[in-house]
Amino acid sequence: MDTQKIQNYGDALYEALVTCTTLPPFLEREPEITLNDAYRIQQRMVDRRVQAGETIVGKKIGVTSKAIQDFLGVFQPDFGQLTSAMQYEDGSTIDLGTLIQPKAEAELAFVLKHDLIGPGITAMDVIRATDYVVPCFEIVDSRIADWKIKIEDTVADNASCGVFVLGKTRGDPRQLDITLAGMIVEKNGELVSTGAGAAVQGSPANAVAWLANTLGALGISFKAGEVILSGSQSSLIPIIGGDRLECTIGGLGSCSVAFSGKSAV
Questions:
Q1: Are 127 and 173 in contact (CB under 8 A)?
Q2: How does residue 101 score in pLDDT terms, banded at 50, 70 and 90?
Q3: Which phi-psi region, left, alpha or beta, contains residue 138 (left: φ > 0; alpha: ψ -120 to 50)?
Q4: What is the CA radius of gyration of the chain?
Q5: 3-state helix, strand, coil in the chain (%, to 5)
Q6: Is the backbone of residue 25 left (phi > 0), alpha (psi -120 to 50) or beta?
Q7: What DSSP state is assigned to residue 23?
């Protein structure tokens, strides 16, 4: 795909983000679009956010479960970039009017104390480089109409990043079994999802290692202080104004978020 198209599609996604509107799926317009094209579009969209004053604070890993990979017809995760405007504190109330068609996922976030430079990174390297882990929610959102996405669509759309919420309780991954630790998610006080770290590429640390190696091959490293969202351990949870979610990871703690208003769709 030529550079002008890449720029135009990235700009269109940024405008959709700002105006809370949607676009048709990319594969309907560009049947020959490749994953490389999609990541270039993503980068243009993220560049527009940075030009508007946001800063990069980390990365997210998506498409980590076999069910979602089968649905999208791929056999590896994808990734997106986290910016300062996406981050909320534990217990926040998020105005859904700032989002389009959001859904919630619960997962484990890593905060790094050392740089990680792939390739050749292992799960143990990830553990050693991690300052702490926290439970978190990612509120995914799509600028693609009706969530009619294939892998190229979600990659171009910054891996369907919306916003994220980091829990306050910090854990040491050297002392917590992040693979076997169970997770429960409650919506308005009722249990809606259960999971465990093993659902994410066998372990959340494996997912982070995969991304470190994938980015390393492109000459990109993880930086100390960055937040890495390791992939969902829950089902996709629909949300509306008035809802409150809480996720709890065994041996670690919990994270909560509430919602007000109404989303664009």
A1: yes
A2: very high
A3: beta
A4: 17
A5: 30, 30, 35
A6: beta
A7: B
Show Cβ contacts of residue 263 under 8 Å, excluding neighbours closer than 6 positions. Answer: 20, 96, 97, 99, 100, 101, 102, 240
Helix (H) or strand (E) holding 170: none
pLDDT tens for each residue of 133-152? 999 999 999 999 999 999 99
Tokens representing residue 169 in the block: 């309780």
Q: How many CA atoms lie within 13 A of 49 on its CB side?
A: 26
pLDDT of 35 above 80: yes
Length of the chain: 265
End-to-end CA distance of the chain: 30
* Tens digit of each residue's pLDDT (9 = 90 or more) over 48-93: 999 999 999 999 999 887 767 776 777 778 999 999 999 999 999 9
Q: Residue type at 41? A: I
pTM over 0.90: yes
